[in-house]
C-alpha cells in the first residue's frame, strides 16, 4: 500500500431526501381535522474542505466510496423529518477537483476552503404543505428527491516555494535531507524517489518549503519515467532549482546537457517559463566534479541563472544556497497577491426561466417528444405513481409550467409518447388537458381525470 497518493477518483453519493407524510389529524369530536403530514428531511451534502494538516489523498485511495446521510420521512402531527448528516472530506491545500472528462470544478487553495461536491436531495412535502383552497385535504405527499451521485477526480498539486528538478540520482533527496529535517529514502539507483518529498527550510528569518520531485528523464512530458506523473507538483512553486550531478560517469551526460534536457521537458509541459531558475552543481566532494562545476559555472551564469557548487554529503556550500533560496522566495511572496481561500462561484438559474425544453426525437419504435428541465424532472422524481391523486397533481404542475401548451405547439397529439427526463426517464401516453385543475377530485388518493 502506498504512503503517498496524489490522484484519486472518488465516488460520491449525497443523501436522499426523506418522503413527505400523508396524514389526517384525528381527534375525538373533530371529524374534519385536516391534513397534518410533515415534510421529509433534506439529504446530507458531500463537502470537500481544505485541511492544513492533511498532506495526502491516501485515505480516499483506500476508501473511494463516500456517502452522506439520508433525510428521514415526515410524520403526522406536522412533524418534519430530520435532515441527513453532511459528510466533510478533508483534502490537502492545493487540491484540484475535476470530472472524469477533465472539466475543472474547483481549485481548492487556502485553509478552510469548501466545495459542495454533491448536493443532498430535497425532502418531499407532506400533505399539510400541499393543501390549498382547491385541494383542501390532499391524500398524497411528495417523495424525497434522490441525492446527487457523481465521480470526481482529486489531483494534489503540492504548494512548495522551491521545486528541485533533475535527473534520477542527481542528489535531490540528499539535498533535501541536508537542508531540512525531512528524511527521504536515499539510494544509489534510478528512481529511488517514487513520491514527492517536502522539506521545511529556515534561512535567517525566512521559512520556506522545498519539494523534491521524482527524477525527470528525456521524454518525461510524454509519459516516460516518473516525471510526467509528478510534474504537476512544480506548478505552484515560486522558483525551480536544477540539481545537476557533476560526478556522473554516464556517457553523453554533462551538466549543460542535463539542464537543456530538463528545460525542454518543462517547456513541453508548459506554464513554467516565468519561474526564476537556480542551478545547483552537486557532488563537489568528488575532486573531478568540483573541477567540472567550476568549469561550467560561467556557462550557467551566462544564461542569467545563479549557480551554486554544493555537496549534500559533505554539507559544503549549503548555507549560501539556502540564503539565496530565501531571497528568491521572499521576492516572490512580496510580489504575489495575498492568498485567500478559493471563492466558489454559484450560478443559479434565472428566476424567469421556464426551465424546460421540448424536442421531437426518433427511435426504432417511432417518434416521441422529450421534455428536459430541472423542474419537470424533479417533479417526476418526487411523484408517487401508485397514487392517482399525486399523478393528477403532477399533471396540474406541468400544465401551469406551460409544458402542455408547448407540446401542442410542437405538434404533439393525443396518444403520442412523451418522455420526461434522460436515462431514468418516465414515459407517458399523452392525454391533452391544458385546462387542468383540481376540481374533478374524487375520494382521497384518486383523480377522476385518470379513470379513463
Task: Explain the overall architecture.
There is one protein chain. It is built from 10 helices and 18 strands. With 452 residues, the chain is α/β, with parallel strands linked by helices. The protein has 3 domains: 1-156, Spo0b-associated Gtp-binding Protein, Chain: A, CATH 2.70.210; 162-335, Rossmann fold (3-Layer(aba) Sandwich); 357-450, 2-Layer Sandwich (GMP Synthetase, Chain A, domain 3). Strands 10-11-9-12-13-14 form a 6-stranded mixed beta sheet, sandwiched between helices. A hairpin with a 5-residue loop joins strand 5 and strand 6. It is elongated and about 100 Å long.
Principal-axes shape call: elongated
Major sheet details: 6 strands, mixed
Q: Into which percentage range does the β-strand content fall?
A: 15-25%
| CA(first)-CA(last) distance | 63 Å
Helix vs. strand class: alpha/beta
What is the CATH topology descriptor of the largest domain?
Answer: Rossmann fold
Relative helix content: 10-25%
CATH superfamily of the largest domain: P-loop containing nucleotide triphosphate hydrolases
The CATH class designation of the largest domain is Alpha Beta
Low-confidence stretches: 189-193
Mean pLDDT: 82
Give the SSE string.
Answer: EEHEEEEEHEEHEEHEHEHEHEEHHHEE
**Strand ordering within the main sheet:** 10-11-9-12-13-14
Quickly give the CATH architecture of the largest domain. Answer: 3-Layer(aba) Sandwich
Which helices and strands, and how do they pair?
Layout: E1 7-13, E2 46-50, H1 58-62, E3 65-67, E4 87-91, E5 95-98, E6 104-108, E7 114-118, H2 127-130, E8 149-156, E9 162-165, H3 172-179, E10 197-203, E11 206-212, H4 227-230, E12 239-245, H5 255-269, E13 277-282, H6 287-302, E14 307-309, H7 318-335, E15 357-363, E16 366-372, H8 374-381, H9 388-401, H10 403-410, E17 417-420, E18 426-429
Parallel strand pairs: 1-3, 2-4, 9-11, 9-12, 12-13, 13-14, 16-17
Antiparallel strand pairs: 1-8, 2-7, 5-6, 5-8, 10-11, 15-16, 17-18
